[in-house]
Amino acid sequence: MDLLFPIKWVIELVLVTFHSIFTFFGLGAAEGITWVLSIIGLTVIVRAALIPVFVKQIKSQRNMLAAQPELQKLQKKYKGKTDRDSREKFAKEQMELYKKTGSNPLSSCLPLLIQMPIFSALFFTLNDAQHSITSGKGGVGLLNLDLAQAFASSNLFGAPLKDTFLSSDLLEVKILAAIMIVAMTASQFITQKQILAKNQNPATQTSQYMQTQKIMLYVFPLIFMISGISFPLGVMFYWLASNFWTMGQQFVVIRNMPTPGSQAHDAQQARLAKKGKLPKAVEPTVEEIEEAKPRQRVQPASKARAKKPAVKKPTTPKK
Prior knowledge:
Elements: H1 5-24, H2 32-49, H3 51-77, H4 84-101, H5 110-130, H6 132-135, H7 145-152, E1 155-156, E2 159-160, H8 171-198, H9 208-228, H10 233-256, H11 263-274, H12 286-292
Antiparallel strand pairs: 1-2
């Protein structure tokens, strides 16, 4: 049994629903723009459903940043200790720190990991549809044979959506695929770059977590560049639309919920101050000021040190 069957069925449901909406408004069933818009609609549905996961990811990333000073202390504590007991203690204390701060090192990859089955299911759904003309088979759900063949014959600017950069000899396919690969790579780079440049606390720049983020800044775009040449144009439209969603979503989060101490946080405070929306400092009342003043302690006079009343000397009468 196909493990992706339920996901493929839902994907076909969403695709066919959007396809029906666009054809209702006059777009052709076999036109490439109709299928591209349907794929973009699928992207919006998927990414909107992942918003709670994204919020959880943001919270976990902030907790990771907050845990970096303690993590660095822990790493210094066990630096140079390679024996088994030290490694086990380090791992145990590290997990306790993650649990205490509510952080997760894999949080930044969570939305991507969840999307991989969806991405794979979309790939196989469109792959099956592009061979429907020769196989005579439709999809597993609402993508029947007629709709599958309509997708297989669709093209955008003369480039069939079922073709890939490597498999096609058409110049239109290579040009469109190259433009999309560059756009995918650039959008991923910009998304990661704005996190590192604007939304990190300078105190954590040298931490291992931030070093990993800097590596990902160049690794992910490279993955998009290499893998993009082997994916059909239809799948690449999903990937590109998802990247643009991530870039816009990240911009909104950094602008409105920046990491304390980051460049974005300073910019937010400046905007609020300009609009007069910063909370004013509460001035202390007279009673609070009086209570804040140190009171002089009155030392009680002891009996031994108490002053005796002055004795008047008798005056001699004048003669």
